[in-house]
Amino acid sequence: MFRMLSWNVRGINDLRKIDVLKSFLRDWKCDLVCLQETESEEVSCSVVRSLWGNYSVDFSFLKAEGASRGIIVMWDKNTFNFVSFSQGDFSITYIFQMVDGGFT
Questions:
Q1: Cα separation of 55 and 104, whole Å?
Q2: pLDDT digits (tens, 9 = 90+) for 10-59
C-alpha cells in the first residue's frame, strides 16, 4: 500500500505554501506526489529534497510556459522504480514499478 497526494498548488514560490506542503508530506508520509500549477520555470534537486524531507526522493518537472502552469512529480525511490514517461505540452504520464512485488 502506498500514499499519494495530488495538489493544485497555484504557485510554489510562496513560503507559506511551501511550509504547508512540507507539513503535509511529513505528516502523510506520501510515496508519490503530483503538484500542479507550480508556476515555476525551474526546480532544483535541493528544493525537492527540502520539500520531501530526505534523500530518497526522485522527481520530474514540466516547467510553466504560457497557459501551462507547471507540474512537479516526486516519488520515494524506496517504494517506486521509475520505468518510463511520456511528456506532452500540458501533461506528464509515468510508469512506475513497485520495489516490493514488482507491480507496474
A1: 23
A2: 656 667 777 888 888 888 888 888 887 666 666 778 778 888 887 889 98
